[in-house]
Amino acid sequence: MTGAPLPTAPTLDAGFTAGVLAPALRGRTGRLDDRIRFERAIIDSREARPGDLFVALPGERTDGHDYAAAAVRAGAAGCLLSRPVEGTEAAAGFVVDDTLAALQTLGAAWRAALPLQVLGVTGSVGKTTTKAIAAAVLGARYRVQANPLNYNNEISVPLCLLELKPEAERAVIELGMYTTGEIALLCQWVRPRAGIVLNVGPTHLERAGSIEAIARAKRELPEALPADGAAILNADDERVREMAAYTAARVWWFGTSADAEVRGSDVRSEGAGAFSFLLTWGAESRRVRVPLPGTHLVSNVLAAAAAAFADGLTMDEVAGALEALNVPTRLRVIDLPGGARLLDDTYNAQPASMLAALDLLAAMPGRRLALLGDMRELGAVSRAEHERVGRRAAEVVDALVTIGDEARVLGDAARAAGAPVQHAATREEAEVLLRALMRPGDAVLIKGSHALALEAVVASLETRPEHTDGGAR
């Protein structure tokens, strides 16, 4: 990850203008105009709109400089370049040696100018959902900003910072990693006062090298927090528990464990669209109905609740916000015209989220079918984790279709445990096999690595829901 030097903060009164950016960049500048106020920074010219600052990043396949003129034609008010580009003369121009380092410097400079407090969120699974829930709950008292996308790396976090508005009182920012050192660098730019660590799992294990390295990397968030901050840690995850010794901040424990300060108990599924639980904080308890799919989300909800309590919100505010949640989740529940109910969890897959999706499927009425694909980047634990998911699938499904080389192991384990399993060589074959199994009233889970593009199967089932079993149409 590129490490840009931390700049001197611009003054807030100046705003996000060309004149403010110039000293932060310390580069060669073209036309400057302090009347130009940038709304955000972008790296894709197709997203350009008036008020944008287009940042030309070099890539493996394409160079952003080739699209700078198109961004200006679409209304971009400025460009951040490493060389002059014909067709950008009408916009404010900044020419620097390294556009990525400059983007990072700008993000850090703008965040430093803002008086808001930042809540950072990290974990192996559930960051984006927790970010959305936390922003909604904090919104019961504060003006909150949180980018809805999974902006969590050395490119997207600075973009997220440059979208922050001076009027915001709180921001919730997702922090991702592939290896150690990355979250620590993101924290230098973000300056979190509070931080949530959700869990430690084998996601990106191939790149990180070991589960211990992943834990060390996640630990960088609580390590970066100030003494007057709040480290919001999952009491149900032993590796997260160990992080309490590495932070100067006050620790807030959340989870279903008996010693969790913000605790969830008596968790009950209310079908595909909601669950309820008893929320306890200190001497107060309240039964809360959360309009989100799957009891596995109780951990995400408790993390957000703990962050809110740490920030001064009351039980009434937190419980009311949780019951009124209207946030997107990765898993979609779709009622197909053919009469089946589809659980679309195709965004990605790793062991914890795969098991959680199967738990939700288990709570559904009717026959239960699943199309499950590979879980990628699990390294040395891949076989064991696929076998574990396969055994759980056998406990839940009436029939299983698998796709992908690694998912063969999953299917073999499910078959050995007594489940009927078919393996598909292609997405098209997987869809044919699944359609042949489906009947009205079935619950169908589709989940696998994003690289398998199983969302194409979902789209086909949504637009062509007819079954092929010769009688259940």
Mean pLDDT: 90
| Main pleated sheet | 9 strands, mixed
Residue ranges: pLDDT <50 for 5 or more in a row? 1-11, 468-473
By DSSP (H or I, 4+ residues per run), the number of helices equals 16
Number of strands: 20
Give the termini separation. 53 Å
Strand order of the largest sheet: 7-8-6-9-10-11-12-13-14
Bin the helical content: 25-40%
The CATH class assignment of the largest domain is Alpha Beta
What is this structure, in a nutshell?
The protein is an alpha/beta fold. The protein has 16 helices and 20 strands. It is 33% helix and 20% strand.
Labels describing this entry:
alpha/beta, Udp-n-acetylmuramoylalanyl-d-glutamate--2,6- Diaminopimelate Ligase, Chain: A, domain 1, 20 strands, disordered N terminus, UDP-N-acetylmuramoyl-L-alanine:D-glutamate ligase, Protein-Tyrosine Phosphatase, Chain A, about 475 residues, disordered C terminus, 6-stranded mixed β-sheet, 9-stranded mixed β-sheet, about 35% helix, globular
What does this 3D model show about the protein?
The protein contains 16 helices and 20 strands. The termini are far apart. The chain folds into three domains: 12-101, Udp-n-acetylmuramoylalanyl-d-glutamate--2,6- Diaminopimelate Ligase, Chain: A, domain 1 (3-Layer(aba) Sandwich), CATH 3.40.1390.10; 114-323, Mur-like, catalytic domain (UDP-N-acetylmuramoyl-L-alanine:D-glutamate ligase, 3-Layer(aba) Sandwich), CATH 3.40.1190.10; 332-463, Protein-Tyrosine Phosphatase, Chain A, CATH 3.90.190. By secondary structure, the chain is an alpha/beta fold. The protein is 33% helix and 20% strand. The chain has a nine-stranded mixed sheet with strand order 7-8-6-9-10-11-12-13-14, with helices on both faces.
